[in-house]
Protein 1
Amino acid sequence: MFTSRFAITALFAFLAGANASCSACDNTLEVDGVALYTLANSTVETNGYTLCTYTNSKLGTKVTCEYSDAGIYEDGDDLCPHMARVHTHGC
């Protein structure tokens, strides 16, 4: 009985992970239609949020954007887009 409960619990955990989604950072960040910032780092945090860090080496500036697993802007700089693409698997 214990083994079947464990197997069912493990299956549910696997299926929940397989159906998880996360935000995907764009390769560039545009300002007034011009790509000024390049993606330097993208991290999926333990809470499921995605942290996107962009840099502009000529200006020496950095922009950080945080998105929920549904692609909704949660926190960051004013230049961040309000929505991000969402991956439904492979996060």
Protein 2
Amino acid sequence: MAAILLPLWLAGCATLSPPLLGGRASRDYERTLSDFGEPMIWRKADGKGFKRRLRFIIMPQLLKIRLSIRIEEPIRGKPYGELVVLRRMGESHFYWSLDERRRFRISPDDLEELNDLMVASELWTYERQTWRDPADEDDYMCIHGVDLLFERRLDDTYYTASGNGSCEVPGEVRAVLYKAMEMAGGPAFHF
């Protein structure tokens, strides 16, 4: 695990992971959820009452904005999403304030398109915590980018993947994020 996290940390590209993995990455994950005011979804109990829960956290390192897009599919009721936008306070990377929090409706067509994009990208088949090819580890360098965290709670399973959008995430995976940003109707940017 340290072999994966260390190159990312040295490059200034944070890797977030849920508390089940422990260490610095887990503390960063908990702090990020706290900054967003977002619930945990990694524990088995967090899936109760839902068919599926998805969360996309997008954190550009050079912009003064961060996004969390959570998509909820309750067992009873219609799917909905929640967008949280944070803005950086001053020049510090450590102080963020809530800029916007709102729910949004999800049309069946949008949900189907998002599902198709996730299937086409093979998003949930990537090895946990990174999209980077371990064979490239010696030559890996990322100075800036967009830190990403994808989470999925489905029945009794939890899956997460994280990485740097500018440095390592395939275009098919970025398309999933672009669709989620479009559905949320909030700030959008390409990387």
Protein 3
Amino acid sequence: MSLVKKALAKSKGGVPKSAMDAQAPSKVKRSNEKQTEYAFFKAAISSDLAQLKTFTDIADKADYKSAALERNDYMGYINQYRMSGGNHPNIVLSWVFIWLVDLKRWTQAIELLPLLIEQQQPLPTRFNTKHWPTFLIDQLYDEVNWHLQNNKSDGYKDMAFCLYQVIHLLRRQDWAGQEIAGGKLYAIACKLEVARDNTGNAVCFGEQAQKINRDAGVKTLVAKLQKKLQRQ
């Protein structure tokens, strides 16, 4: 049992303040329990964030985040939050998503993206963007680009899977005001597919990148790929 859940269980074991509290309707009781649970996890994540400020080394921060996710079972809380239909500004959800991205746990992060968008969860104020897809795309772009620049072909398949997941989730996204992010998503997918020798997919992604943002940086590449397809 996580440290947070131990503290929560201890608090639930207290004596009711009054006979009325003891006889409270089940819905009210469940609502109060949810609020209490959130308060505990919010306090835990706030404590972890304060502790992170004491580290200067990125690797140390990553180790701490990974350990905190396990120690406090934040993912267990978030899964319960989702299943219960919870919907309120949730700083725990927001920071866990950010940590998952920082730790390159792409599949877990991508799984939470629709919930953040649907509930319009606010990004912490320290970040420049207020748009969750943009936040994720920026980080994922850098990761895929690193693989391409360093010829890490053994990771191409996993990176392609992540990009395909994000593209599928955002297939109906209105990119108005976020054209740069949308263009980056499809542009890096185009470049990755070139590296994987999937010319047809590369052209499709490249054309979509230009459709969203004409300055996506793949105009020349797409033209070459189109000519290549014509010769085949």
